[in-house]
Please model this.
Amino acid sequence: MQIENTKGMKNLLFILLCLTIIGVEAQREAANWYFGTNAGLDFNSGVPQVLLNGQIETVEGSEAFSDPDGNLLFYTEGNNVWNRFHEIMPNGTNLDGSFSSSQSALAIPNPSNNGIYYVFTPDDVLAYRLGTPNGFNYSVIDMSAANGTGDVVEKNVDLLENASENVSAVLGHSGDYYWVVTHYMDRFYSYRVDDNGVNTIPVVSVIGPLIDNYENFRGNLKISPDGQKIAIAQTILKPVYGSSLFLFDFDTSTGQVSSTTSLSDDLVYYGVEFSSNSKKLYASGRPIVVLEEELSIGGVQIVQFDLQSPDITSSRFTLGTLPGGIGTEISGSLQIGIDKKIYHSIPSRKLSVIRTPNLRGFSADFRMFELDLGGRAASYGLPPFIQSLFETVVEIENFCEGDITTFTTEATADISSIHWDFGDPASGSANVSNLMSPSHEFSSPGVYTVNMEVTFGSNLVRNFVEFVEIAEIPDVATEIELVQCDTDGLDDGITNFNLEETIQLFNNGNADITGVYFSTLADLQANINQLNSSNFRNNINGQRIYARAFENSECFSIVEIILSVIPMSDFGNYDSLNVCLEQGGLAWSVPLGPIFDRLSEDFGAEFDISLFRTKQQALLEVDPLITDEVLYSFIDPSLIFFRIEDQSSCVGIGQLDLEFLFRPVLEPEVGISLCNGLAGLLAAPGFENYTWSTGQTGPFIEVDTPGEYVVSFISGYCEWQQVFMVEENKTLQINSIELTDFSRNNRIEIIVDNPGEDILYSIDDGISYQPEAAFQHLDPGIYNIRVSNDCIELEETVIVGGLNTFFTPNYDGINDYWTLTNAEYFPRFNITIFDRYGTLLTSFDDQQKGWDGIYQSREMPSDDYWYLLQFESGRTIKGHFSLKR
Model:
């Protein structure tokens, strides 16, 4: 075994914030992440741990925020806000963000009020398509409310009528305020957040780039942790694919953006992120490809720019290329964590990781799909945070077991003293130091929590934490053989290899060991000309290449690899397959069992079958689907690829077109009653085949006998059942109608023989129905009553009598006489009228118009008067009314 133990610059694993108002260990505000489909990570230990309690479902962006000790406070996808118990906060719905915005939300604390947070929500391309853009808004969370679990106390304060899908934030120059920055059209908008809250008047920098088609508003914006730079990626899709990745200077004193640098013109970019020392910029993009005289895009690339290079544009270095066919046109977000690693998200159950992003080129150590999410799925977005949380002013070197690890404080940090606790009590008295730039030999491999008590030149004292990972010298196999299948039909021993398959062959079971690959030992020693590990094409059958095997890129062993090729068939577009699903939505879980069963029927159970999301994955055996279900979203292609092997010998690969069939919305049981001895019709239309419990096979059947009827209906390979319960003949009879009229609240109530939920009542001749049998506050008049159920409809007519509560005898022809409202329907009545003292004023019957307000040839004054109404039946009604002049 050959072992190399090099010592050089390593990833800077510490956040140091020169803050005057943020609490102790403030970087832990970014300790908890929630994103994708119920995915989550906890970074508090320095090594991300999977969280399975998240409620979030988002296609792109999200945000999460914790307290200074790393305890979760809340998280959001731009529409809803969940508290630490994963419950929707009071008033925590309908924020004007979107689950499909690149950076759906960003949270900022009030610098002087630990309980107040501002959640900024950018706009959304989908909203523009609907003609209802949301603009750039913020909402306010009060964490002291709802027993300390938080309440959204102010919502959707409008800052911009229109905006893009991006937002970033950084600490202001004096450390007691923040800048929140977004972009729209050709200008940046910087909003100051201080003790007084959000200043709604932005600092506007008209500088570009000009993005005037809303379809191109996607993409991320990031400010460097030291606040000096801004990078913005715009995903240019319309009218043709285009590239937009720009770098600017940012002034944390004024909020102004200046000095434009265009970094690239050949990738469709989406994600951007800075290293913790602000010296490297990373971006995700898809190459623009000319295919048959039309533009298309290739697989996702992760690229690095060296911001200290005299020519930043020319410093671009491709860290890795994801297999083609992953995701859609979007290349996924990049986000730094408190462990100083940068994570990349694309729809998958794993995140890719840049482990040492402060280092240049291959030393940045990009690991594709390394971090497993515990069965949960990532999407295209990750939660952004205040970028100042990730600033580094300490340089750390030497992370190999047995090395002396050095800590160098940058001279420009204005630090007067530091007290160090290396989190290594086994080292005895060496566990602490008061040196400005100490060194320490850690007692064993592992992740150490290093605490620093920092005194600044202003006598400000802060405590900070960093995580230092000490790696073992790799114990690996020194020579292995990698066998690959050739699907091009030529028996020439030349094919594409996924070199990363060698890792499990040489790592002796240590899952933290990875490898990078080289054609020669000389290239390996110099760490130059690294091979494409995910898609390498050999020169000859039996070619030998070499790998650096390591946990830390500076602590490696050498492995010699022999590449062997055997033939394999390509079945192409093999077949289509119906997939039966319970429900739809933005995403759904597709069971893999029926797909395995179908392929086993065709090829035989003795063959090994594996499934993949892309053809490239099937060929290179990358990321096989090993769970019982796989997640598809509405934007994913409905394809799946398979690989067939016979005792590890190559057989073939192929593609299945999946047709997703969703279970129709069915009632557990449908009740139907026969009507008046007539046959009933049972219906279940819209499917390919039917089998009824009666033996009939059509979408409709007639039944005339009560009982249970079951239909099995089939579409493709999917079969569902519906139960119909047919009841005895229904009857319906109006027993009585209770009427209250000539009152302040005229009322009709209909009494039937068998009241039930299926009976409806109408008093306007069937224009409208209600399930209640009583009608109140009715005007006098004629009412045509209808009562119906599924089978029968009955009719009655009712007259509701009434008397006006006042009249105005002013001879204008309107309401000049007081009498019954509908006197024509009440023959042979008599009304006697009295004043308030009991004086008989007049009496009239159905042959007269009524009282005109005259008594003994003089007009009676405005007042209340009493009446006695008598019918021939003996019914009498007493009351009063008003005369108004």
The chain is about 5% helix and 45% strand.
